[in-house]
Design brief:
By secondary structure, the chain is an alpha+beta fold. It contains four helices and four strands. Strand 3 and strand 4 form a beta hairpin. The radius of gyration is 17 Å and the shape is globular.
């Protein structure tokens, strides 16, 4: 398994982070994105664009007063999932990397399978 080149990734996004609303240090822009993503998700409205923006900033989960919500990449988009138990940051980050690797393989395989040579070749 190769490690992706992350030289162009901003430093803050290289470190997985749990956005914790109980912390006074939540940056306003990330807090706003997270609130909007949570509200849309709770209402059953797709929030992929907001969720991917958070993920690209290194956010792997959002802690609210009542729960911990994981950011998860799927084969066809992004979603929020209530965490089971109280996973720590290292576990969440490792799970996110593992899912990303599996999805990349799946997408590459799906792309290869969709390219079929014309008949007679």
């Amino acid at each position: 398994m190769s490690i992706p080149d992350r030289r162009d990734t901003p430093e803050h996004a290289r470190r997985p982070t749990i956005l914790d609303f109980s912390s006074p240090a939540v940056p306003a822009d990330l807090g706003d994105l997270a609130r909007r993503a949570l509200a849309r998700h709770s209402a059953g409205i797709p929030a992929d664009t907001l969720i991917v923006a958070l993920a690209h900033q290194g956010i792997v989960a959002i802690r609210t007063r009542h729960s911990l919500v994981e950011i998860r990449e799927l084969a066809d988009g992004w979603t929020l999932v209530n965490a089971v138990g109280t996973p720590d940051l290292a576990t969440l980050a490792a799970a996110a990397r593992l899912r990303a690797t599996r999805l990349a393989r799946h997408r590459a395989h799906s792309h290869d399978a969709s390219i079929t040579p014309p008949k007679g070749h």
